[in-house]
Amino acid sequence: MKKFFTAILSMILCVLAVFGSACSDKKESGYSFMVPDGAPALAVSKLIYDKDNLGTAKTIKYSVIQSTQVQPNLSSGKPDFIVAPVNLASKLYKANSNDYVMVAVITHGNFYILSTTEISVSDLKGKQVAVPNQGAVPDWTFKMVLEKHNISYTDGADKVNINFQNNGSIIVQLIMSGSETIGLVPEPAASALEANYFNKTGKNLYRLDLQELYDSETKAYPQAVLMVKKSVISANPDIVSTLQNKITASVSWLNQNVTVAVDTINDNGGSTLNANTLTANAISGCKMYWEDAQSSKTSVKNYINKIVEIDNKKASAVSDDFFYLAQ
Length: 327
Prior knowledge:
Layout: H1 2-28, E1 31-36, H2 39-43, H3 45-50, E2 60-65, H4 70-76, E3 81-85, H5 86-95, E4 100-107, E5 111-115, E6 128-132, H6 137-148, E7 161-165, H7 168-177, E8 182-186, H8 189-201, E9 206-209, H9 210-214, E10 224-229, H10 230-235, H11 239-254, H12 258-267, H13 280-285, E11 288-292, H14 293-310
Parallel strand pairs: 1-2, 1-3, 6-7
Antiparallel strand pairs: 3-10, 4-10, 4-11, 5-8, 5-9
């Protein structure tokens, strides 16, 4: 009898082990989608709100992360979908044995030079400009613009003195306090700063569009790109076209659902957005739209090459295998 009960118990344990394994597999069978806080998160806010599975028949866990978390997550290869600064994507897709492929550019530059006095780009000569995130996209793009307009930031009496700050919020505080008169600020913080500065001083801030200074025709540059694992695309052949349709719809939805979008982002890890300051102009200034990999290939390669010229440790030249090619 004892042997009988032992056999029954063993059978039950085996069944539980099988079901436990199945449950574990089911838990791990979902996808992970990571997006930095700010404009990139706004671009996919409807996907997060809907908990959209993108037609995969699997659960997708959406996480809004801080900019400092992009590199370790992309390096680990854990997320199935991740939005990343284009330079970081260029370096790490190689480090992951080409696990990822770029499917689109989704943000196209959201930085503006704000000044307490009216200025042109040539007026920056000899001035101090507060710039966030040394060694990152805003820094390089600002330097590209200065070089394009033959303005030095390294030597000479008329050089631009770049005063680096850790982030845009510090620059906002410095301009509000009068400690800085010119700063590089991203949307939507730029529009909020303009409104708050006017309320405090009764005066307007003046702005220059960094994207237009970079490229007067497109008024854009490839800022953040959507990277997707090749294995996900292989398992879901329609995923890229689905992403295009969903993200395009998300940007349109955002304009009528600002509070819901911001609450959704903040509920999933965000902390920088405020619905009260997210005006239509601020949303437009974030320059969020889908540009597929093949259409953006030339601009992405050119932008990355310019970064490499400034600092070859911060980006890597990419070949055609970096870009998704629809079959």
